[in-house]
Amino acid sequence: METLDEKANGAPPMDIDEPVSVRDHEAFAAKNMPDLGHDVKEFKVFTWKLTGWKKLDKKLTSSEFDCGGHRWRILLFPFGNSNAPPNDTVSVYLDYADPKRAPEGWHACAQFALVISNPHDPTIYTVSHAHHRFIAEECDWGFTRFSELRKLFTIQEGHSRPTIEDECADVSVFVRVLEDPTGVLWHNFVNYDSKKETGYVGLKNQGATCYMNSLLQSLFCTRYFRKAVYEIPTEEERPTESVALALQRVFYHLQTSDQPVGTTELTKSFGWTSLDSFLQHDVQEFNRVLQDKLESKMKGTKAEGAIAKLFVGKMKSYIKCVNVDFESSRIEEFNDLQLNVKGMKNLYDSFRDYVAVETLNGENKYQAEGYGLQDAKKGIIFQSFPPVLHLQLKRFEYDVQRDAMVKINDRHEFPFEIDLSEFLDETADRSKPWVYKLHGVLVHSGDLHGGHYFACIKPDAASRWLKFDDDRVTPVTDREVLEENYGGEILNGVPPTLQRNQVRSMKRFSNAYMLVYIREAVMDEVLPPFKEEDTPAHLKRRLDEERLQVEAKRREREEQHLFLTAKVITDETFSHHEGFDLASFDEKNWPPSELPTFRVLKTETYNVFKARVAQHFNYPENQIRLWVLVNRQNKTVRPDTHIPENEPTLTVDVIRNNMAARQTDLRLYLDVIPDLSKPELPQGTIMVFLKHFDTSKQTLHGIGKCYAQRNAKIGDLVPTINERMRWTPGTPLKLYEEIKPGMIELMKPKLTFSQSEIQDGDVICFQVDLSEKEIHDLEIQGLYSNPIQFYDFLQNRVMIVFRPKIDSDHDAPEFSLVLSKKQTYDTMAVKVAEYLRDLKRSLNQSIAEIISPSYTSPSTTVILYEKLDVSIVELETKRSLKVIWTGIHNREESTHTFLLPKTSMVHELADHLSKQVTLSTNGQGSGKIRVFEVSKDGKTQKEFTGSEMIGNIPDPVELYAEEIPWEELEADDADKVISVFHFSKEVQRTHGVPFKFVVKPGERFADTKKRLQARIGASDKDFARFRFALIQAVTFKQPSYIEDDDNIYEHKFAPEDVLGLDHVDKSGKTRTGTGEKAIVIRG
């Protein structure tokens, strides 16, 4: 029984202030059923008359009625259903009649009101309303606690009679079955299949990559772009290192997969870490960086020029004199347009604002070359729009009062179709209409500090609108595309005319921030039908192979319970093993041994399995026997007994369960029979394993096995060992028993194996007997003189990976050392110093304390190190500072590191720097050095006076230094020294290093530019692409771009006003505002 509490969904039972009759169906529905904004398929009212209420059954249903093509009925529990306290409530529901006969996958979206009313006075009633998507799993919906019985049987305040009178009442239901054009209205999305419902699949969100997902889906649906990406040659590339290949793979999976597609491979190809996937970035910046990267990959291929062809338009900036025939203009390309939202009613207004003409007159007249000061018109006009037009709506702006960025949630309308011809220059090509159709709406839901991104896209002219929301794709209505993304105010989702009580208006926090329009005249070219041959054959082949591998692994996982793993120790693997037992299996601080491994069906017979093993190791079957290793109580893993050869029905699963019950896998020792004429061992024979501790090499390795009689003496092993090691007969040895970790004991040679309690699979370690002097010489070097000490080291050993703290330090390698947890930091430092000369001092902790606690359980520990150029003692009294030298031409030339006493002054730092850099010799520089920081916004220098003590400079700090130009030192009172910074398209996207520049009175900007070019040492080719703008801090306006005939000296510079150089950043070091991380794509 699906239930609904009226307080949670819908209105509570209502006290009636204005009498409305239940029998006045339209008025009653208007009062009690708010308009939900959906088209109504059919409206029906059904009334069920009841008498003898107190004698009614506990559960009863009304007769059925039709509404909206479905059969319905009322389900009533006159005294409450089983979930409610008995006899004190009424439970009533709208029930879908006979859902089993309905077609598979049926659903019905209904809004309804359930009413119990007085049969004699229909203005006395109790009502509750709700809405629900009726499906097979939820085929009834209503109110468990519709009303208390006593309230229905008693006269309530304001009424003259009770609702249930003389045990009679009318139970009515008002039903609106609603149209569901998308098929997903009020869907719970349990078992929802995007591919089946829409033909498309979503993208998985890695943490905060919804902004990227929405753009990628838009680009994927731009089929000309997808085809161009596929044309980039990537056969020899790796997906985690190549953006082009990784994007091709994402697009192919979006085409072919029936499950949401992952983007981890793609972000790895960008060079991003998992942390980058949890940072939201600006979509516009991400789009630009991605397209720049792809454009460079397309050069020299079939796809070259595709991005410019699709996304690049042209605009003209001009100043035209009113009274004389003079015009100054320049043509620029654009990939997207940023349009104002604040103060704009709709998209047309935003375009009109963009091309609005500014009049230059009065004190602001234009200095026209050859004509003097003139009244003029200044503005922008478009020469052409690209086939695919990306419009960035400026939802995020700087608020002067708050001194912060804010989100603009104002209402801003945009149409399905827009004619942009009125914004074109009169010289533009008008042979085809400039009508654009809406193709995509990228939406941000939330505020400045976070939120969610999704996209509404119409993949082609014949398709319906779809909502791409991370891993889910659903159909949407036109209202959901337009009205719900305009922004502005809403009245709790209900039109004001139908509000019972006026409620406060609420801002919509979901609104469009990027629009994609496609020119109607080239729609077929931009969105052509996608053909099989458009997908590169190598990509299809590669991904199909990977899909088969994934499928095979999946099948392997599913069938895992049918198999077990058998690991086989051989004399060869034993000879390479350095540790306890015959191999490492489950040691906490040491990786397991690499052993030959077999995947075996549990039902496979031992004879079949043995034949496989013999074939693998190239032995005749009758020359091997397999011993099962067991977990002994003392925590060792040793061969216990060999598997019987005379039971043909014995399976590997039975062997594992009966002979090695406490193990998940089967661990075996391959015993090669040395003499086939004697396959069976004599009675009383035991098999022991020998290890040699070599004091000179400080190693412990397996030598193999040997057979001995239980009643033989331990000392009888000495000649056997000397012969096997090819030592001189009679070489004195010491023998030790490896009982368990932490218990290694010297053996008595005169005792027998039986007296020493030696059994099959035991390990005996031997070493050459040393003199007292040899022992002393070893121990004074910190080396181990016997196996007991070495086994103690093995028990406490840990492999530590040492990695340079600074990734870019090419002189510092990554390496690993095996150390004992009992050793100290100083001992570790000495060991590391064999690779490196110095390590920063720390408390002399033990290594066990340094690597603990380990919250994960890796088999290796990683320690970061830093290679220093000075002793540790010297470092503690001095300050290490890194200075980036930008020379006389404002470019990062070199980096210099200094270690100076903390009491040194900044001017002393400048003196040291002057001895390491080359100052200018062309007369442009003064020979004096300025040391400075860059302000957080990247627009100005924070200059040091020179008298600051370097120990007092806050850490961390990024210091810059430059040679001060003569021009600045010689500037007189009439000159102005201003700040200049570099940015790319938006003033927030700063890059490079800001610098100071002298502005001279009466100088045309054309001449100022020549001095600027000389100041930064830019080539004519590069400098031709620069644009120049005044940025005023007071108004925080958009950049005010400067023309050649302007005179910027006349601008009244406030302290924060700066000159901006707008040009492409080639450094990859773009800043995007305080605390934000620039988007970098490396692959």
UniProtKB/TrEMBL annotation:
Domain of life where this protein originates: Eukaryota
Cell compartments where the protein resides: Nucleus
EC numbers for this chain: 3.4.19.12
GO biological process, one term: protein deubiquitination
Catalytic activity: Thiol-dependent hydrolysis of ester, thioester, amide, peptide and isopeptide bonds formed by the C-terminal Gly of ubiquitin (a 76-residue protein attached to proteins as an intracellular targeting signal)
UniProt entry tagged with the keyword Lipid biosynthesis: no
Top EC class for this record: hydrolase
Domain MATH, first and last residues per copy: 43-175
GO annotation, cellular component aspect: cytosol; nucleus
A Pfam family per the record: MATH_2
Segments forming a coiled coil: none
UniProt entry keywords in alphabetical sequence: Hydrolase, Nucleus, Protease, Thiol protease, Ubl conjugation pathway
MF GO annotations: cysteine-type deubiquitinase activity; metal-dependent deubiquitinase activity
Xref: SMART domains: MATH
Domain USP: 201-520
Family to which the UniProt record says this protein belongs: Belongs to the peptidase C19 family.
Protein name, per record: ubiquitinyl hydrolase 1
